[in-house]
Amino acid sequence: MNLSPDEIIFWQYGLFKLNATIVFTWAVMVVLIVGSKLITRRLSMGLERSRWQNLLEIIVTTLEKQIEEIGLSQPRKYLGFLGTLFLFVAMAALCTVIPGYQPPTGSLSTTTALALCVFVAVPLFGMEQQGVGSYLASYMKPTFIMLPFNIISEISRTLALAIRLFGNMMSGAMIIGILLSITPFIFPIVMTVLGLLTGMVQAYIFFILATVYIVAAMRIRKPNPESEE
């Protein structure tokens, strides 16, 4: 049993390795790209719509509603980034029903890359909203002594995102692998279904946390009505 898809090597030449993490990551991306092209090539504005279009609209509207409820007033602006994170993690989990497939999110390198995407996106969205100077100045509030602590906070929450997703996804794969080796019949099938549910929950949690971090970076302060009077 492999603890990580990094251990499965398909091809190696010197220091260059093509492992299962890379292969299945690109496979998931290809599935998402091709699937989105096929679903959106014939969109209908009428009452008769395909099931795939209905499913896509449900996903988009649900994600938009979640983004807006968390605190971002223009959900469409952030839907591309946050929605892609959600779909990638969710699809990586859903594909576990395919024999021989190893979810790339079971590798710490993949979850670290996803967390780094959030780490880069948060200040970019914050600078776009507040301006570069104003956003960077927020790291020294309420006093300049808080600068190193705020930087450590940014780094630590990125690590927490990566390790949380990695730990949850890897633990599910390990449990299923152990059960398959001990009782390769009905019980592992039930655990596989539960693993799919867990994967969807982890995709949702990752999406929510990324949204919360972006909202925190915005720090949009609404004027106090009493002060205006």
Automatic annotation (TrEMBL):
Keyword Transmembrane helix: yes
GO cellular component: plasma membrane; proton-transporting ATP synthase complex
GO biological process, one term: proton motive force-driven plasma membrane ATP synthesis
Transmembrane helix as UniProt keyword: yes
UniProtKB keywords: ATP synthesis, Cell membrane, CF(0), Hydrogen ion transport, Ion transport, Membrane, Transmembrane, Transmembrane helix, Transport
Chain ranges passing through the membrane: 20-39, 78-101, 107-126, 165-187, 193-216
Signal peptide segment: none
Entry similarity comment: Belongs to the ATPase A chain family.
HAMAP family: ATP_synth_a_bact
Protein name, UniProt field: ATP synthase subunit a
Organism of derivation: Nitrosomonas nitrosa
Recorded name of the encoding gene: atpB
